[in-house]
Amino acid sequence: MGHYIRKYPGGISPRDPELRAVAHKIAIGHRLDRHDGLAVLASTDLIAVGRLADAVRRARHGLRAYYVYNQHLNYTNVCRNRCAFCAFARDRGQSGAFTLSPVQVEQRLVERLAEPITELHVVGGVNPGLDFDYYLDLIGLIKRLRPGATVKAFTAVEIDHLAAISGLGLEGTLAVLQEAGLAMMPGGGAEIMSPRVRDRLFPLKMGHERWLEVMRAAHGAGIVTNATMLYGHIETPAERVDHLLKLRELQDETGGFSAFIPLAFQPANTSLAGRRPTTAYDDLKTIALARLMLDNIAHVKAYWVMLGEALAQVALSFGADDLDGTIIEEKIGHMAGATSAPGLTRGQMRRLIERAGFEPVERDAFYRPVHAGEAA
Ligand code: V47
Questions:
Q1: Which terminus of the chain, N or C, has less C-beta within 10 A?
Q2: Which atom of ligand 1 is nearest to the CA of 267?
Q3: 136 and 40, same structural domain?
Q4: Is the pLDDT assigned to residue 1 strictly greater than 50?
Q5: Ligand 1 contact, 325 CB (< 6 A)
Q6: Is residue 371 part of a domain?
Q7: Cα 13 to chain center, whole Å?
Q8: What is the pLDDT of residue 9?
Q9: pLDDT (tens digit, 9 = 90+) per residue, 275-290?
Q10: Cα 332 to averaged position of ligand 1 atoms, centre (Å)
């Protein structure tokens, strides 16, 4: 039996030979390559794929499953990129366009000041109407009202824009933002690192080489970041695997990625409305693929906003070790038709984790455990 488990991590023998070869590689600690990634995606043996990913997840994290008490702040939805997959963005002056004034930002923060929030997730569109000082003031305001919380702000796409308007270059811009209080960056804007998909869905957005360059610079400055992949639109299996390989390559170089977050495409109210949303089968396989390929990124998030609470819970057994956070108000997924709750309480997050057989660990932005106290 012992030999059997060693031979097949997860304890079962995959029924297709390609996946059996992948299982062998994992058992002997070999890194998976492009061919292996494609074999995982092509396999219909979902349970065997899941058991492999679960074995890797348990070796890293045991039964721990993380969540964070966080707040999202979307400061503007005015965006010049107008990606076809996005339901959040608006043109300047278009109905539904918004940009929060400092007073409005303050209101959003003050109304939740009694809550033990440890992370502020701050992202917005690329809004040409805002000057660099707006961003510095935004971070300064958050730090003043929430000095103990981590400001996780601005995707690589926003940072690229800030480097252009500040005139300080990439490194200089990051240094000034850090000085103002930016401590971490979210992983958005990576989409799918494929020129083919970019030409069709987000031709105005910077290319993936620049996304990687911004992340490399952030890591070099000591800013930990996340990484995402938007899947379930027009990308091919090979484009998904190649995306993961590009992230793994940069991570080998910098070690600066903390978590990887696969984002399941939500089609409603986008230019791709009418396309079918992802299936649970595909979502679980993609989570598992990420856990198996990204041997150098510590955490894989099952982002409940896009997956729904029920599937995010199941994903904890398919390689994910983190459910992201309480959030309360999320716009990017929900404006695109996500049917998950607007937010979850700490008690709800803990129950989701416990009822899936895992041990909830409230963490801060850097995965340090936080004493959760009484469940809310
Ligand atoms: O970059 C946009 C994606 C991202 C849709 O780092 C969509 O901890 C699905 O990056 N359907 C922003 N996805 C969100 C993001 C994120 C979320 C949670 C945690 C972290 C983190 C990062 O959302 C965008 C884009 O790839 N997105 N539209 C859509 N219709």
A1: N
A2: 30
A3: no
A4: no
A5: no
A6: no
A7: 31
A8: 83
A9: 999 999 999 999 999 9
A10: 7
Residue 22: give the domain boundaries.
Answer: 9-60
Please say whether the beta carbons of 26 and 49 come within 8 A: no
Identify the residue whose C-alpha is closest to ligand 1 atom 5: 86
In the reported structure, the alpha carbon of residue 228 is separated from the centroid of ligand 1 by a whole-number distance in angstroms of 7
In terms of domains, do 342 and 292 share one?
A: yes
Q: What is the DSSP string of 76-93?
A: B-B-SS--TT-SS-B-TT
* 4 within some domain: no
User: What would the pLDDT profile of 128-180 be if each residue is shown by its tens digit?
Assistant: 999 999 999 999 999 999 999 999 999 999 999 999 999 999 999 999 999 99
The Å distance, Cα 16 to ligand 1 centre, comes to: 34
- H-state helical runs in the chain: 2-7, 17-27, 34-42, 46-61, 102-110, 132-145, 156-166, 169-180, 195-201, 208-220, 237-254, 280-293, 304-307, 309-315, 346-355
Q: Is 40 in the pocket of ligand 1 (CB under 6 A)?
A: no
| Cβ(79) – ligand 1 distance below 6 Å | no
Q: Are 40 and 152 in a shared domain?
A: no
**Running DSSP on this structure, what letter comes out for residue 198?**
H
Atom in ligand 1 nearest the alpha carbon of residue 157: 1
Between CA 268 and CA 266 the distance in angstroms is: 6
Same domain, residue pair 268 and 155: yes
Same domain, 256 and 182: yes
Closest atom of ligand 1 relative to the 227 alpha carbon: 6
User: Does 369 reside within a domain?
Assistant: no
- Tell how far the Cα of 122 is from the centroid of ligand 1, in angstroms: 12
Our count of domains for the chain comes to 2
| The two structure tokens encoding residue 376 | 């809310």
Is 284 within a domain? yes
CATH of the domain at 181: 3.20.20.70
